[in-house]
Design goal:
mainly alpha, Helicase, Ruva Protein, domain 3, two-stranded antiparallel ribbon, about 35% helix
């Protein structure tokens, strides 16, 4: 591992990752990949966990991306995936990077369109998951009470 092979910023799964980070923590910077999933990817790829992201070659990055995008091909258990029984396709998938925010937006739009309870709450910009709304979540209103002047 010479200095010329080291890259300060490495592009993994459409995300710029700091090359000085350990490979597990660098992968967890990608949206949709947590620490446990990153550890599993590193173990399946056969990399040293103490390796830095900047030393990864293009073939190694391609292997990481393949494992992250096709987890069932590498016998990753279904319970580790973040998109089980997808609404549109019905298959188990793991979604990462910008696809995650796009699919989340599609789900919220679908809930608004069918006017389910969560969709209505999203449309009204209220809390969705049963939180208290009596005292919190008051956005956009005037704060405080206007007091009358003594002369009035």
């Amino acid at each position: 591992m010479s200095e010329q092979e080291f890259k300060e910023i490495t592009r993994v799964l459409g995300t710029n990752v700091d090359g000085n980070r350990l490979i597990v923590f660098g992968l967890s910077q990608v949206r949709g990949i947590g620490l446990r999933y990153a550890q599993l990817i590193v173990r399946l790829a056969g990399f040293d966990p103490k390796m830095r992201v900047g030393y990864l070659t293009e073939q190694q990055i391609a292997k990481i991306e393949d494992i992250a995008k096709n987890p069932l091909k590498y016998n990753i258990p279904i319970w580790m995936l973040n998109r089980r029984k997808d609404y549109r396709t019905g298959e188990d998938r793991h979604i990462t990077s910008s696809d995650l925010s796009y699919i989340n937006k599609l789900d919220v739009d679908r809930m608004r369109r069918i006017k389910c309870w969560r969709g209505i709450r999203h449309a009204l910009n209220l809390k969705v998951r049963g939180q208290r709304t009596r005292t919190t979540g008051r956005g956009g209103l005037i704060i405080g009470v206007a007091r009358k002047k003594k002369g009035e």
